[in-house]
Amino acid sequence: xxxxxxxxxxxxxxxxxxxxxxxxxxxxxxxxxxxxxxxxxxxxxxxxxxxxxxxxxxxxxxxxxxxxxxxxxxxxxxxxxxxxxxxxxxxxxxxxxxxxxxxxxxxxxxxxxxxxxxxxxxxxxxxxxxxxxxxxxxxxxxxxxxxxxxxxxxxxxxxxxxxxxxxxxxxxxxxxxxxxxxxxxxxxxxxxxxxxxxxxxxxxxxxxxxxxxxxxxxxxxxxxxxxxxxxxxxxxxxxxxxxxxxxxxxxxxxxxxxxxxxxxxxxxxxxxxxxxxxxxxxxxxxxxxxxxxxxxxxxxxxxxxxxxxxxxxxxxxxxxxxxxxxxxxxxxxxxxxxxxxxxxxxxxxxxxxxxxxxxxxxxxxxxxxxxxxxxxxxxxxxxxxxxxxxxxxxxxxxxxxxxxxxxxxxxxxxxxxxxxxxxxxxxxxxxxxxxxxxxxxxxxxxxxx
Length: 449
Ligand code: ASP
Hints:
449 residues; alpha/beta; Carbamate kinase; VC0802-like; eight-stranded mixed sheet; five-stranded antiparallel sheet; binds aspartic acid
């Protein structure tokens, strides 16, 4: 049995909902359908969630809310009209949106979340009704009824472990359960949302709870791209990757999938597939715990910007007791956290996010490091980008680093730092920001063309 989640762009219009219906109909094992709020129909459109955010802000500022309310309701109404649906539930949708202005503004930490959750909640009602109209045995299920009980952290809720047991009771359902994504209820019964994009989290939680065979996450791309399509034109999609690879790629700036969302499915050992509602016959990207070893060594290339490198060199550093500790203590005392720390016999590099280094902090840092460590050389380089190539297969394959550096050298890209992570599933290159795109293209050509 499968849990299937549709993102906002897959539910933005009647045309999209027809595709969703076909996808669900096609496979009777798709029993749990998690939905986002209607998303954008075009680049210039506004997501229902964002309309709800402005509704909330107008309400707080005592500004007129009629117009925004109508705008929100009309998104649902238009879809229903175009689908030729009976509009009984539109009355409920209208009421649920209008009623928000009766909630207290003062001392109400859950107000914002209550506004936001209406987007998915109403959409789940609409989708369930649409499925019923088309002969599917489908019902709307509220997150509370299915057991999604969360911590009391508005905007950033976490699932309570006890929820899974309750959710598992729905495992044998005959009906298709349509569940709104993005929010749950606290033990006290308050609505709390997950972080933005959190419908992915709901899907993953439900998949873990019912021990699904597969969690299908439908979006508007053919899967996870090997490299950013804004940098490499028409990049390939990744066929299969492991959770570990996914995590490394997400860290280095990959944003296709809400990476926190992976956790529940990952812990329950459930494979996830990312697929395209607009091209459902494409196999998409499968995320699993293990992958066959004969795979290509590199599965993806990601990058992130705005790093600084603190380079410290001192003859016989390797023999000086406590050197590393002193460096870290200085960073800690200045409230600086670091990302990577590759080291050699006589030198060490500390890579950190540049935004932490204000001119004052940087001055203090340099003088402290000079004073305590007495280094032979000390310099801070700004404006670095980190490029990461990721792949479990790198462990078995000799020469991946050599191939990468050769590709970079051929393109006259100067390497400021290279770091093979202890995890052995990634290698990281620090280069100047200006050369980032060129470097990604060079690595793409090396490993994928
Ligand atoms: N609608 C919510 C958002 O825009 C959650 C989601 O779509 O996953 O963040």
